[in-house]
Amino acid sequence: MITFDDIVKVYPGGGTAVDHLSLELPTGKITVLVGPSGCGKTTSLRMINRMVSPTSGRVLIDGRNVAEQDEAVLRRGIGYVIQHAGLFPHRTVLDNVATVPMLLGRSRREARAAAMELLERVGLSTEFAGRYPAQLSGGQQQRVGVARALAADPPIMLMDEPFSAVDPVVREGLHREFLRLQQDLGKTIAMVTHDIDEAIKLGDLVAVFREGGHLAQFGTPRELLEQPVDEFVAEFVGRDRGIRSLSFDTAAELEVRPPADAALDGVELVLDASGRPVGWRRAAEPEPLLATGGSFTGADSLRLVTDLAISSPVGIAVRVGPDGKADGIVRHHDLVDYLAARRDHRPAKPTP
Ligand code: ADP
Ligand code: MG
Questions:
Q1: Domain boundaries, the chain
Q2: DSSP string over 41-95
Q3: Which of the listed residues 4, 9, 33, 43 should we mutate to test ligand 1's pocket, taking the one with most ligand atoms within 8 A of CB?
Q4: CATH topology (fold) of 259-344
Q5: What is the mean pLDDT of residues 132-160?
Q6: pTM score, two decimals?
């Protein structure tokens, strides 16, 4: 666990970069520091590996003050990834990754073998090993940066805007790989970004910073979306946060009606011989059938169900079982009632 204990940072000649920050980053989880530019995220991150020292307060790793630890030993246990990867331009990809293990005393052969394995781990085939950083795309360089930070197998990883310099499509891919990698590795990760969507997607916990180095809110992505503590956080997480928060719950507990209840809306769900949905038949105008536009299972998210109900030509979402057979329907009025009840039963978040 990484603890920020009442940290203040005032740069000489500058304003307050971090203002009485107290925060706990749990071991083995991804904690994202997010907020507008200049609000003290990088400053806070760099206090963990002592690249910045606090004006007052303490940073502790597993209860030990980093200020009292040997700097070299401390940094050996902390990987660091930055925007644009920060690779050595005159070394090959393989040497970039192998450098750290060699510094730690592993033989050249061992280090290179380990580097090769890491490159594959981050999704780069071995054909890249002999290239120089300038011969790679931004996304590939970023992967090398991650591989290099992992090379010493540090329990802690600091990542400062690691995915910000790559285009959105590549970023999507890097996000997926990063989450998959973290599932295997279970590092303690502190990541900085200015992108709230990235924070919500990647963070187990998210700390939202506000101008002046204030911590505005610290919580799970779900808490931020459902219970922002103030207007700033609500505005920052974005307008469609209600819809987005529906992706955190499955439809497992959503009550469905028997398909025959579609008659209440003047329609009938037409099934094929094996019971799979084919389309909607309106009592008033039997032909042509209207498309169901897809179906959901209990494992799908409430967001999908809502989308199906809204986009359905008859305002009804169809549930299917594992065999694909229609086993229930959700009328949009019923869904709205359910979502309202779900909101009302949510425990209120105490204001800090
Ligand atoms: P963020 O990463 O959230 O964009 P930073 O931590 O980089 O913010 O910066 C926080 C504040 O501290 C900003 O106002 C910035 O200008 C200031 N700052 C950052 N580094 C220094 C420095 N080395 N010297 C003086 N002021 C700095
Ligand atoms: Mg920064």
A1: 2-248, 259-344
A2: HHHHHHHHTTSS--SEEEEEETTEEGGGS-HHHHHHTEEEEETTTT--TTS-HHH
A3: 43
A4: CBS-domain (3.10.580)
A5: 90
A6: 0.82
